[in-house]
Amino acid sequence: KMPEVRKQVFLVTKSDRRDPAGITELLNRSLERMKTDWIDSYFLHGVRSTSELNNDVKQWAEKAKADKKIRFFGFSSHSNMEELLEFAAKCGWIDCVMVKCDYRLLHTDRMRRAVEACARAGVGIAAMKTQGGGPVRTDTDEEVKLAGHFLSKGFTQAQAKLKAVWENDAIATICSQMPNLTLLKENVMAALDGSKLTAADWHALDHYAQATASSYCRG
Known about the structure:
Helix content is about 45%, strand content about 15%. By secondary structure, the chain is of the alpha/beta class. About 30% of the residues are buried.
């Protein structure tokens, strides 16, 4: 109904099929459901191995871009992320990736190197699961101390965790869950706030990450 507005929207969707016929079927279904002629970024969802990113998928992606059904192609992943990011940086046909990426993982050497390799290769990275939570309990003394540290500075620990990812220049964007208006407003405020985390802030996050490491699932 508003084609000029569509040009301002970067639209992303995903396929959990791996065969070209199945990927095409799901792409066409998405185009029909969303009443649009193209997807800006199309991902294979939940990739675990580089073997899933084979020559058949490469040829499909190149044809879909030539047909102007998609602008960019990539994958999302919750596991084996370092190897997959290294592959994306080297292969030459992956445009963008969406991976689990948080203040914990960005401190590990291999993850940091893989993220930087993608940035050098021009592969856009969308970080998801940025809160570094999972099974970590939220009622512990460590959680209370971390929350108190950031609340005394005027923002929440959740906003601090977003900032920690945004401050990495290799990260293009964040995919963040916003199921209500409160979280929407908090995320927008964190995005618009230009202040950087201090050394003390990073120390607080690092201390918390180490203290709760045994409860954290790296995927």
